[in-house]
């Protein structure tokens, strides 16, 4: 299997604080990967390490088989769009395209001009006069038209209104299918990830809690509801992800490969948001154990 990103015990420390630690993941090629977690979980740090903008404190990371940002050729293979959709306010749309053509050896000028025309962006307009959605689309165009093998997007739609978010994600999906890109998309908006992603990574407390193909993750996680029951009475192959109790009822989210035969349980499937929240809501003492189980 070909991996676009591999991390082994990857960590980044700022002073005494770990922004990311013990991160071990393998992201297969050909996926649109959703990276999700609460604010401060380490999402941006992981993406900057993958983009070569930061050096790790511990462990290592390879992107497309090489060290991130190590050579101009390696940089050309990766597109990066940061959270603030970085464009130059004083430059026009056309000037952005000309600058990108000079900086990127595989720049596709025809694709860039076609996208700009289709999006209705006026080449003579300065980026500082564009709306938030237009700036985001311009940044996405710059990232796509360098023709990368991997496109990294760090919460690019966080500040956009719902219509602009939908248009951005639609444009991303069209480009992904057309150019067979691998994409890593960070967001705290699970509904957006649900539209476009087929692979999921959940990052909480600076550690990976869950990673895998979305369909498989949803198929192996279930919500169980029953009159109050102690978790020690659950079968050994049902790993408890989260639990809540009332005086009379217990509700568990469990991960298991096996069918659930106990007729006492009411078994319901999880949506992607339910799955993400189950891992994010775990008590800190339990998170480390689950992360280790998931990574085995």
UniProtKB/TrEMBL annotation:
Q: Which UniProt keywords apply?
A: ATP-binding, Nucleotide-binding, Transport
Record CDD domains: ABC_DR_subfamily_A
Q: Matching Gene3D superfamilies, A to Z?
A: P-loop containing nucleotide triphosphate hydrolases
Q: Which residues form the ABC transporter domain?
A: 5-230
SUPFAM superfamilies given for it? Answer: P-loop containing nucleoside triphosphate hydrolases (SSF52540)
Species of the source:
Microbispora oryzae
- Name of the protein described by the UniProt record: ABC transporter ATP-binding protein
Single GO MF annotation: ATP binding
Note the coiled coil stretches, chain numbering.
none
